[in-house]
Structures are given as structure tokens and as C-alpha cells.
Amino acid sequence: MGSLGFWRLAQADPEWVAAVDPDGTQYTAGDLLARANRLVHGLRGLGLEDGDGICGLVPNGVEGLVLYLAALQAGWYYTPVNWHLTGPEIGYIVADSEAKAFFVHERYGAEGARAAEEANLDPRRRFAFGEVEGFRPYGELVEGQPDALPENRSNGATMHYTSGTTGRPKGVRRRLAGIDPDDSAELMTFLLTLFGITPGRPAGGEQQAHLITSPNYHTAVTQFGGSALHMGHTLVYTDRWDAEECLKLIQEHGVSNTHMVPTHFKRLLALPDDVRAKYDVSSMKWAIHAAAPCPVPIKQRMLDWWGDCIWEYYAATEGGGTIASPQDWRAHPGTVGKAWPIAELLIVDDDGEPVPIGTHGTIYMKMAGTEFEYKGDREKTEKNRLRGFFTVGDVGYLTEDGFLFLSDRKSDMIISGGANIYPAEIENEITLHPKVADVAVFGIPDDEWGEQIKAVVEPAEGVAPGPELAAEILASLEGRLAKMKWPKSIDFIETMPREPNGKLLKRKLRDPYWKDRDSAI
Q1: How confident is the model at residue 501, as a pLDDT?
Q2: N or C: which end of the chain has fewer CB within 10 A?
């Protein structure tokens, strides 16, 4: 194959600045390569073999990048864990992924330590960046290990956990090809070439930088950042995203591409005109967004400000998707684009039969050559498939010329600030409260986040509804459910609308909140 792939580029040009941490520290490719190599030697010394997995509970930055680069050249699975989760939720992922080593940054030390106990992980396999009780310092693992490339290298992969509608997340696991890591990385860069993105300086192109705006535990953030690095782009990390800081970093590093969600656009557009005018963002060529439908007026204003660099796509961790160039979107405002060249779309009715053009149905996708399974859940893997296509339960329609529009989602998933939130998981926790007879959780419109979480509660007999009860219910979620999953508000109802078979009529509760909106996404 060609000349792409981090390890190849780092050996050819070790002085290339490959990453910039949130505090501004710059790391050369040679330095990152040596760190990743030492980690592989250290973990092999611990007995890790091809196909094993490691987990990282680490903030955005070089520590997580080294875990990623080590796993992807040693034939391992790397699972970056959502740091908003609680100890038991993290522990479930560590145990389910069968992690042979768990890396925790001291910032998340308390929940990380709870997770390691929950997963019953051997203390010799727990490593800390900084001080975490019961964890060995990371330095112990890599000290004295050689900087040289390890032998018998083969491609690894990330295994992200996607929340299941039943509330337990599932690892999306792809079969490892057993090929050279750089060849595998080069295949990964296909994703970026769909948008027309070109290689950076060490790979024979111009100096380019990719800005990481969101948490690295999101599949897309890892995929786009990793692919940009394998193309020779400098990764510029942000810790906590800030609108003005984002403009500053674009100007300072000549950022040419990034991955965003509509919430970012909304915050950028809210900046005062004089602040927006202070920064030169002309280096930006590909500002790619996804994760939630972007309101048409907001995207229009971004195109007016940043020019024709705003690209959109629709996809899932499981593979396949659509892409909309700025020109496509201007011609079809609101579309999420056309199928990728290697992907196919199928819109079907409830019986699994294809529907006519322009008719709403469940969206199924498939991508050539990407077989996946939900780890340890053959049944769920099969259930979401139809003649080789799979669905995440979204509903939409296709136009005559193949453009996809999203209309609603079957599974009632809530998308808030680009994060997927599943009501069933929240309902399961609230139901446990002794003063709650019944509960329904769903998304209602939120101009900043896309959706916010609303809970409707039927109080137990003899319990008075009101602010005190709402506060008591929320307080009971402490330590059991990540704060980002807590309802923003709780309303009370005398009797929950249910069918005779017990099925909750969630639409009845939800519709009044959406009645003034064009689409109930």
C-alpha cells in the first residue's frame, strides 16, 4: 500500500508535530511512536496477546492517544470509556470487554477505582496517570521498555460501547484482519477521502491540523481524529470546548478540518459579532458535523460565515451512512445526504418491505466489507439486521435523487448535545423510587442542546406531587446514573396513559411539547 499510517509517517519524519495537548504542549511523532512502542512491550510482558482488550478512562489528550496507537499496532481492542458514567456503569464495560488492563486518569480516579472493584480486576492490571488509590503508576509499566518497534505487529481496532435500548451498552466488535497496522490505518483514511480531505505534510501534502472538539470516547471523534493522524495531520486537542477558544485554535494552528455537532455551531453563532470578527478561520476546509439533526437556519448561518466548508453525514457505530456536501445541502436544505459509495440505504415499513420514494420508514444501512457483532449478543446483532442491512431504529425518507431526510426515531432515543441518551435506562432507575408508581422519560425541544430530558411521573398512592418530590427523585439518582442522563425537569400526572396490554403511549405525553415544531426528532 501507499505511504499513509501513523507508524510509517513517524519513522519517516520523527520531528513532525503529531499532537498538541489541551495545555499547548506539543508532541513529535517520534516521541509518540516511542511511547506507544514501550507500552506494547510493557503490556506483552503482562501477557497480552492478539485479540485481547484494554480500557482507558482518560481525558482528551496524548495519554489516550498512546493507548490507541499501542492497541492498533499490537492486534488489541481499545475501548475508550465515557468519563461521565458512574463506577458501576464503567465497571460493567471493563468486565464485559474482558479488559486485560485498565488505565485511569486521576481526574476520574474515584469512579475508576469503584469500576475496577466492580469488575473484580486484578490489581496488577490497573494503571494510573497520576495518583489513583489501588492503581500502579503508569510509569511502572513502561519504564525500561525498549523504544523499538515491537515484533509481530498486526492491526488492532477500537471497540466502542453503544448504549442498548435495554439500558446495558454493547461493544461493537469488528473482526481483526491480521494485517500490517499501517495498511489497516490507510484503509481507515477512506472515511476522510469521502469528504475530499487530503494528506498532510509528512505524507507529501500541505501542513494540516485536525481540531478535536468533543470527548474522545465517541466513535466518530476517535475515527475522524485517528484517520486524520494517519493522513499526517496534527491533532489539536481541546479539554472542555469553548466557542471563542475554538476560533483561537483554528487561527493559531491553521486548522483545516474538524468534527462537530450542531450544539457547537449554535454556541459559535451566539458569540458577539466583534469576537467572531477577531479570528481568521479561512484555513478551515472541512467542518464536518453529525450526531443530531442541525436546524436549517443554524446551518445556513454557518455556511454564510465559514463559507462552503460545512459537510454533514449520517452514520452509526455499526457502519454505513450518508454524506452531504455544502453544495448538496444548499440544493436540498435539511438533507443528511446521499449514501456513501460503499454503502447502501433501504427504507422499509413495519413488515420489512421497501416503501416508495418520499414515504417515511425505518432506515436500514449496509457497508461493503464491515461485518460487526454486538459483543456477546448474537441475538441483538441478528435482530437489528435485515437481508444484510442493519438499523439503529431511525425513521426517514428518500427523495427521487437519493437524498435522505430524517423524520423521527422509533426507539425514542434522546440526542442531547450530540450524545445519545436512552430513556429506558433512566426509567429503570426512577421506577425504583418508593414514591414513584409509574414513569416515562422522553426528549423535549431544547434550543441549545437539541433535546433535553423530561420525566413524567405518576406518584405512588397518597404521595403529593410537587417540587419537593421532584428534588427527592433526582437526589436518588446520585452515584447511580451519570448526571448527563438526569431529567432536566419532572412533571406529574395522575394516571399514566397505557394500552390494556400495558404498553406506554409515550407519544401522548410527548406530542404536546413538540406541537409547535416542524419535526419531532
Answers
A1: 47
A2: N
Cα distance between residue 41 and residue 61, in whole Å: 22
Mark whether 398 and 462 lie in a shared domain.
no
Measured between alpha carbons, how far apart are the two ends of the chain, in Å?
43
Cell of 141: 509499566
Residue 487 covered by a domain: yes
d(CA 202, CA 15): 10
Range of the domain at 407: 334-411
Q: Rounded to two decimals, what is the model's pTM?
A: 0.80
Who contacts 132 (Cβ-Cβ below 8 Å, separation ≥6)? 104, 106, 109, 112, 113, 126
Say if residue 483 is in the same domain as residue 470: yes
Task: Indicate if 390 and 430 belong to the same structural domain.
Answer: no
Query: Above 70 in pLDDT, residue 166?
Result: no
pLDDT of residue 165: 45
The grid coordinates listed for 447 are: 434550543
Structure-derived torsion over alpha carbons of residues 246, 247, 253, 254, reported in degrees to the nearest 10 = 130
What one-letter code names the amino acid at 44?
Answer: R
Q: SS3 of 419, please? A: strand
Q: Is the pLDDT of residue 329 over 70?
A: yes
Closest CA to 5 of 153, 111, 218: 153
Based on the structure, what is the number of domains in the chain? 2
**Does pLDDT of 521 surpass 60?**
no
Instruction: Report which DSSP code applies to 358.
Output: T
Taken as a whole, the chain contains a residue count of 521
Q: Is residue 437 part of a domain?
A: yes
Query: What are the backbone dihedrals phi and psi of residue 403, each rounded to the nearest 5 degrees, phi first?
Result: -85, 135
CATH number at residue 339: 2.30.38.10
Do 385 and 340 touch, CB atoms closer than 8 A? no
Q: What is the CATH number of the domain that holds 482?
A: 3.30.300.30
| Inside any domain, residue 351 | yes
Angle of helix 109-118 versus helix 87-96 axis, rounded to 10: 50
What are the strands, taking DSSP E only, across 376-519? Answer: 385-386, 389-390, 394-398, 404-409, 414-416, 419-421, 436-446, 450-459, 489-492
Q: Is residue 102 part of a domain?
A: no
Query: Do 380 and 366 sit in the same domain of this protein?
Result: yes
CA distance 316 to 107: 29
Residues 6+ apart with CB under 8 A from 500: none
pLDDT in the model for residue 410? 62
Same domain, 434 and 393: no
Q: Which three cell numbers stand for residue 445?
A: 425541544
Can you tell me whether residue 350 is helix, strand or coil?
Answer: coil
